[in-house]
Design a protein that fits this description.
Layout lengths: L1 H18 L12 E5 L1 E2 L12 E2 L1 H13 L3 E3 L1 H6 L8 E8 L3 H13 L3 E5 L29 H9 L3 E5 L12 H19 L5 E3 L7 H9 L4 E7 L12 E5 L6 H10 L7
Parallel strand pairs: 1-5, 1-10, 2-3, 4-5, 5-6, 6-7, 8-9, 9-10
Helix pairs in contact: 2-4, 6-7
Length: 272
């Protein structure tokens, strides 16, 4: 009996730490900014499966948001309307520019009338940025993932549901660059997107979530109105630093229960 009680208490403690079901929800007048990468099946034995959310899981998540009457905005729209956003507002974001954002994500977004912001790497084809953050990840497979062609980016824009934001020219690790190099990555990314796709590029995402004061300064000076990080959390856009906006990470390893909890608090459990 004693060992049974110890086992039960251990399981309860583990569940409570892993899912933090007891935490109060963050104020629902604060928008939830969700971070995705790929909408595709996991690849057994490969790294970065946390970046791969299956189409089935994605549709269940977007269907849930629709059923619960969440209001959808692009990142730029949310910033412009930050003083008047209704409760339960959500911004769906995708980093890098993977082809499945068009082939798998867009049909689901269209089905439920949801919008999204895609942060595009300009030089995204035949480039492996897996090791830019950690050398041990070099060759881990992101190079082989199909990326959006320019015509596919135009198709996304023509849908009326997609905003194209910038994610630097080469998915650079900005902290490893000097100020001149970093500024070129940030500014020229915006300029190229606007020229090539005839669109306004107001939104930026720091690759890997790595940046410092020089990079934040460049983002503002280059004419962006906002920048998102990979810091996990939920912020009030009316009061937070608009060049350090946290996001809610949606992982391919999340259960649906974990997704719902992340909508409540910004994190799955106590620590992440």
């Amino acid at each position: 009996m004693v060992w049974f009680l110890i086992s039960v208490l251990t399981l309860v403690l583990y569940f409570s730490i892993r899912y933090a079901w007891w935490k109060s929800a963050v104020d629902y007048t604060y928008p939830r900014i969700l971070m995705y990468h790929m909408i595709r099946d996991a690849m057994p034995g490969k790294k970065f499966n946390s970046l791969r959310v299956t189409p089935e899981a994605f549709e269940k998540q977007i269907g849930y948001l629709h059923a619960k009457r969440w209001h959808s905005y692009t990142m730029s729209e949310a910033v412009v309307q930050k003083e008047t956003l209704p409760a339960k507002s959500v911004v769906i974001t995708f980093d890098d520019g993977y082809q499945d954002n068009l082939t798998h994500a867009l049909p689901i977004l269209k089905k439920y009338g949801f919008k999204a912001t895609i942060y595009l790497v300009n030089d995204r084809h035949d480039r492996d940025w897996s090791g830019y953050r950690k050398a041990k990840n070099e060759g881990a497979g992101l190079k082989e993932e199909p990326k959006l062609s320019d015509d596919e980016v135009r198709e996304l824009l023509q849908s009326g549901l997609i905003e194209i934001g910038a994610h630097t020219l080469t998915h650079a690790n900005l902290k490893s660059l000097d100020e001149t190099q970093s500024r070129e990555e940030i500014c020229h990314s915006k300029q190229q997107i606007e020229k090539k796709f005839q669109t306004v590029c107001n939104s930026f995402a720091y690759p890997f979530g790595l940046y410092d004061a020089k990079d934040e300064h460049s983002v503002a000076e280059c004419g962006y109105t906002n920048a998102v990080t990979t810091e996990a959390g939920i912020a009030d856009l009316r009061r937070c630093d608009l060049f350090k906006i946290p996001r809610v990470t949606v992982s391919g390893k999340d259960t649906f229960f974990a997704f719902v909890l992340k909508l409540r608090t910004g994190k799955r459990g106590v620590f992440k």
